[in-house]
Structure formats: C-alpha cells, structure tokens
Amino acid sequence: MNLQSKLAILADAAKYDASCASSGAAPRDSVGGRGMGSTEGMGICHSYAPDGRCISLLKILLTNFCQYDCLYCVNRVTSNVPRARFTVDEVVQLTLDFYRRNCIEGLFLSSGIIQSPDYTMEQVVEVARVLREEHDFRGYIHLKTIPDASPELMERAGRFADRLSINVELPTPEGLAALAPQKDSTAIERSMARMAVHIESARQARKEQAAAKVVSMPASRRGITRRAAAPQFAPGGQSTQMIIGADATDDRTILATSAGLYGVHRLRRVYYSAFSPIPDAARALPLIAPPTVREHRLYQADWLMRFYGFTHGEIVPASQGGMLALDMDPKLAWALAHRERFPVNLNTAPRELMLRVPGFGVQTVDRLLAARRVRRLRHADLARLHVPLKKVLPFVEAADYRPGRALDAADLAARLAPPPAQRGLFD
C-alpha cells in the first residue's frame, strides 16, 4: 500500500478523536535558523472534520489494526474496515512535509493496539523522539497514550510531547465494562494519576528554578556554572475524551465524572464526543446518534464548571431528570430556575455573582469590574461592550436602569430561548 492510501485510511480513522486542540504548549519557534516548527500562531484553521470541527494538526493513527473489541469503535478487531499501518519514519516524514508546506503546526498521534500495549506505545513515543531529537522539530506534539503501557514508556512520552491524553472512553466504569470489557477503568485512573504526578513535579521544578534565578551576569565574573534547565514533562498537561450517547448515562453523571477528573487529576480538558453509529454495530449500541446539541450543551456546562464557579450538581438539578435542557444554554436555564438571585447590581455585586448573569463572559465581567473602580456603571456601558442585551437586561440593574418586573414574566423563558433552527431541505 502506498503512502497516500495509508494516509487516506488512517486520517479518516482518526476523525473520532475530538481532543486535538493545540493549547497549553510552551512557546517555541525556529527563529534564528535552529530547528523546525513553532507552537505559536493560529495554525491552518481551514481544515474541517466531517462534523464541522476545525483541525490545525496532522491528526492520524499509527495504525487502525487493533486487538481490542470495543463495541463502539469502528477499528475494533471484529470490524470489517480497510486496515493500514504507518512506519515510524513515514509518520515523521509526513509531519515534516506537511509542515514545510505550511499545512500544519503540529502532530496529533494515536493508534490501535497491536502486539501489546508496550509495543504500540514504544512506536508512538519513537515518532515523537525522532521528531524532537533527530529533526529538532519544535512544533506541537500531542500523543494519545495507552493505559496498560509501562510507566517508563509513559514517562518517556512526557519528555517529548506537549500534551498527553488517555481516553476514559465512557463516563462510568459500568459502561466501560459493558461495551469495552478488555479495558480496565482502574488502570486508566492509575495512569492518569501517574501522569498528574509527573506533570506537577516538573511544574514545581521549573517554578523553583525560576524563583532561584538571580540577575544574569557574565559567568567569568560570578565564578559559577550555569544550571541546566529543569526538565519538562507534557507542559500542556493531560486531557481525556468520553463518548456520549453510547449508553444510558445521563448528563448529571457525565458532569460528575468530569468534575472528578478535573479535581483529582487536574486535567486540562475533558472532550465530549457524541456517539456515531458505525457499520456492523453490536445490538447493545443505539441505532441512532444522540442529538449533536447535547454534546454542545455538555461543553457549555463543562465551561461553567471550569471558569464560572458552578458545581456539576447545580448545573443539572435532580428535578430535570439528570439531563441538560436542549432548548437553552445551561447558564440561562440555571438563572431562570433561580430568579430570586437576580437582578444583580453591576456596581456592587461580587465577581462570583456577576459571572452567573446570562450573556456575561469572563472578559466582560473583568472589564465591568475594572470600569466600576473609577465610575458607576450605566446602561450605555453594556451596549458598548456588545453584550446580548435581550438576554442580559432582565437579570441586572445599573445606576440608571432597573428591570422592574421583567424577571416575574411568565413568558420570560420563551422570549429568551434561541429561535428554532432552520429545517433542512430533507428534514
């Protein structure tokens, strides 16, 4: 099989991996004629996956052969799909060639499991090592790691990659046992914990080195030897991905799992991937995909946990049957369910409460806080910030504005809900 045919198969097989963002990497470039690649800039940002997500990395599998039989995976051992496998050198050359053509800014590499987890992980790590050590590649590298691989291989991966990830696959251990019985949720958690320790140790070492650094002087005058830089370990942190809609797990449980991963293992991102029906699917899987808006609402709820101070329990109260509302964003749904907390006075409210106003983002709140240090905020200030006034005004009050009884209106939810999406020609 020629290289182009392999690329067609293994790039398509990688499209189900959602965790390919290139954030969190240390700044590097090849200015000065040393090395190749950069972690700066915006990437190509004009290559799109079939579901609409923008991809700026070369996202491929080392191979789509796999000895596991996960029911939800199109590359499972019993799946009747074309198979291909790259060599280490082929992946390295593809990465360099695509970079030279200004098509990519980095590499996202995953793989099916062949021979053994250690053998597969060794091949994945070798790609990163050759790029870094033999070609001085300074672009972004994200490696999808294998939980059952040895700790030594996982540690080597962290030396060369900007970000590592281990997929939890499904939100609950019970779901994993039912749909992927060859995978062990305990082993996944153990590997995540090891990576978290390595990442934190490297971060602390760099922090201590920076604190100990003195004003630079010629070494000949100081009579000291320069200290080597503290080693890095996956400076972009670790992430994971879970499949949504392959089993009956509700949104409340999904967000509880994510909150636990953020709190215990300090993950940078949890990615949610809506289940896609696959050819020759097992009877245990649903026949149709969940609505894509459910994935979108989960991302919005995840954002509320990470940046807005919400807990997973209050985002999806038990009264909603464990599911997020699909017809409005979770922040607006929370505000409508807690009208007694509003209106928020823009001139006196704490940051934590202002972050809960529908239509306010983190930057908007920070700008309002900065402005109110020098003068009282008025209705016109909101217009200048280009916030969605229709959504914001019922929940705030300013020096020259009061919402009156707008919060008590019976039709407030209907007026603030987004308009229905336009139906497609064949819907």
- Kindly report the spatial arrangement of strands forming the biggest sheet: 3-4-5-6-7-8
Structural class by SSE content: alpha/beta
Order of H and E elements: HEEEHEHEHEHHHEHEHHHEHHHHEH
Per DSSP, the total helix count is 16
The whole-number mean of residue pLDDT values reads 86
Overall, the morphology is globular
Largest sheet report: 6 strands, parallel
Give a short synopsis of this structure.
Helix content is 38%, strand content 9%. With 427 residues, the protein is of the alpha/beta class. Strands 3-4-5-6-7-8 form a six-stranded parallel β-sheet. Strands 1-2 form a two-stranded antiparallel sheet. Strands 9-10 form a two-stranded parallel ribbon.
Q: What would you say this structure looks like, in words?
A:
The chain is α/β, with parallel strands linked by helices and 427 residues long. It has 16 helices and 10 strands. The protein has helices at 3-13, 88-100, 117-134, 151-160, 173-179, 185-212, 219-222, 251-265, 292-307, 312-315, 330-337, 351-354, 362-371, 379-384, 389-392, 412-416; strands at residues 47-48, 54-55, 58-61, 106-110, 140-144, 163-165, 238-244, 269-274, 344-345, 396-397. The strands form 3 sheets. A 6-stranded parallel sheet has the order 3-4-5-6-7-8. Helix 8 links the parallel strand 7 and strand 8 (269-274). Helix 2 packs across helix 3 (117-134). The radius of gyration is 25 Å and the shape is globular. It starts with a helix and ends in an 11-residue tail after the last helix. 38% of the residues are buried. Residues 40-50 have low confidence and may be disordered.
